[in-house]
Amino acid sequence: MKLIIGDKNYSSWSMRPWLLLKHFGIPFEEVLILLREPGTAAAIRAHAPNGAGKVPCLVDDTGHATWDSLAIAETLAERFPQHPLWPRDAAARSHARSVSAEMHSGFGELRSNMWMNIRASFPGKNATPGALADIARIDALWRDCLDTYGGPFLFGDFTIADAMYAPVVMRFNTWQPALSEAASAYARRIAAVPAVKAWIDDALRETHALPDQDECP
């Protein structure tokens, strides 16, 4: 299989399926395409002609393309049932799908105002009321899952739900909003996961820059 991704410093959506493949030891070829360059879309389509021309995109051994982080995660869970990408318990699995979908479709204020830039540090910046409301919801969601399932991750072991929120941890590391102690501790545990640490290390070595993402008012 081949996973087409964007810059590790910026591409939060790419990070999610990459972490799942790495964490669960599923073999794949990584293809990194620099974002927002004149040839970006063409380069993506060269590897995935049947895709949407966006990253991330998973191309399987038959050439079939699956795009969108959550679609890729579901595809991996279906194809590799030996790995507990979702919780084994049905009720926990439903809960994990719900919080993952909430991340997938929500938190627009956080996304707009506190983008992912692993190399940057913007402590205290862009703390708009909407972004703070999103952060409060995420903090409460994390605490509820940790209390319900006992940690160390949202549903006990590392699952798709944790991969969905890992880029949020990257945002929190950059923008440093106030979090509860439980949420802060969870964020530290996520950052220490070997696959997450490998992504961070790769991002720190990148040199490609998106000027509007590297500056903050």
State the CATH class of the largest domain. Answer: Mainly Alpha
Distance between the termini: 41 Å
How large is the radius of gyration? 17 Å
Corresponding CATH architecture of the largest domain: Up-down Bundle
Number of separate helices: 10
Question: Which structural class do the helices and strands define?
Answer: alpha+beta
Shape: globular
Report the biggest beta sheet as strand number plus sense, adding barrel if it closes: 4 strands, mixed
**Which quaternary structure do these chains form?**
single chain
Order of helices and strands: EHEHEEHHHHHHHH
Mean pLDDT: 96
Q: Determine the fraction of residues in helical runs and give it as a percent range.
A: 40-55%
Beta-strand fraction estimate = 5-15%
Counting DSSP E segments of at least 2 residues, the number of strands comes to 4
Count of folded domains: 2
How are the strands of the largest sheet arranged?
2-1-3-4
Q: Unreliable stretches, pLDDT < 50, 5 or more residues?
A: none
> What is the CATH fold-level name of the largest domain?
Glutathione S-transferase Yfyf (Class Pi), Chain A, domain 2
Short account of what is shown:
It contains ten helices and four strands. It has 217 residues and is α+β, with helices and mostly antiparallel strands.
